[in-house]
Amino acid sequence: MEQSEDRPSIRARSWLFAPGDSEKKMGKAAAGAADVVILDLEDAVAEEAKPAARALVAGFLASRPPQERDRLWVRINPLDGPHALADLAAVVPGRPGGVMLPKARGRADVEVLDHYLSALEVSAGAERRSTKVIALVTETAEAMFTTGTYTGAPRLVAMTWGAEDLADAVGAADNRGPGGGYGFTYELARSLCLLGAAAAGVAPIETIQGDYRDLEGLRGRAEKVRRDGYRGMLAIHPAQVDVINAAFTPTPEELAAAQEIVDLFAAHPGAGTLGHRGAMLDRPHLARARALLAAGGRA
Q1: DSSP letter string, 121-179
Q2: How far is CA 81 from the centre of its chain?
Q3: Please, is 219 exposed, middle or buried when counting C-beta atoms within 10 Å of its C-beta (0-12, 13-18, 19+)?
Q4: How far apart are CA 230 and CA 74, in angstroms?
Q5: Cα(151)–Cα(174) distance, rounded to whole angstroms?
Q6: Would you list the DSSP string of 244-255?
């Protein structure tokens, strides 16, 4: 198992998809405010267009200055399909910041991906393990049972989940309930992704909101999942990026309250619990306050 001190990390609030078959849309996404731009070779590209899109993404990466490529990631096709190796061979020489692995079935898939990436990095003259990985961990029925297996997975920095492919996998007519929210199976997927990411020590990233025009709904959902423990969210349209960035950025009031808790424990270093504003605080409160300050860049 990899040691925690060797594990790469990432702090990224917004992860914006851009279709790999459109140079215009990739350029617009890269010019925007998304923390990570995901050049998509999977769902956004029709089967017959994948070879051309692969070449377009490779050329796009090669055209960008080296300092920009760390935030340019690529969603490849699934490992068990015919396109993944060709995707990797085409894009790794362009040195993207990372790869999104769709339909991951457990830690073993990330380990296979690590082997492929290591060989291609050596061939391209890139630093070994310079390419990070985010795994989509709930897109198949099988994958739902392996969300807790990713501890120590090489290169892994984040985990996210998907509701649309999962609905297809189980034969559901819809993944939404009468009130518009996700049904039980999909809320379970969200929870399993969060717990799996916590167990693996990587960032949990919320799935997309398909209605890109509903920015108020997006804001409410993003704020809720941040309270639940998520650290960022996928986006499908540039209009969603600013809302996501704001929702996953701690407010000045939150930072001030967290700093107050940290200062209180610092003033009483031997205390396990402390009274504060009519409530009892213990060490988990301190840990959460420190985490929030770290997210706000004030740790």
Answers
A1: HHHHTPPTT-SEEEEE--SSTGGGG-TT--TT-TTEEEEE--SHHHHHHHT-S-SB-TT
A2: 22
A3: middle
A4: 22
A5: 32
A6: HHHHTS--HHHH
**pTM to 2 decimals?**
0.87
Quote the DSSP letter at residue 182: B
Q: Which two tokens stand for residue 84?
A: 């993944």
Tokens of 150: 């990713």
Q: What residues have CB less than 8 Å from 116, skipping those under 6 apart?
A: 84, 85, 88
Q: CA-CA distance, 286 to 292, in Å (whole number)?
A: 10
Task: Return d(Cα 34, Cα 63) in angstroms, integer.
Answer: 19
How confident is the model over 248-288, as pLDDT tens digits?
998 777 778 778 788 888 888 877 788 888 788 887 778 77
Q: Residue 237 class from Cβ within 10 Å (0-12 exposed, 13-18 middle, 19+ buried)?
A: middle
> What is d(CA 169, CA 186) in angstroms, rounded to the nearest whole number?
12
Q: In 46-106, which residue ranges form alpha helices assigned H by DSSP?
A: 50-63, 84-91
C-alpha dihedral sign at 273, 277, 279, 284 = negative
Structure tokens at 212: 């890109």
- AA identity, residue 39: L
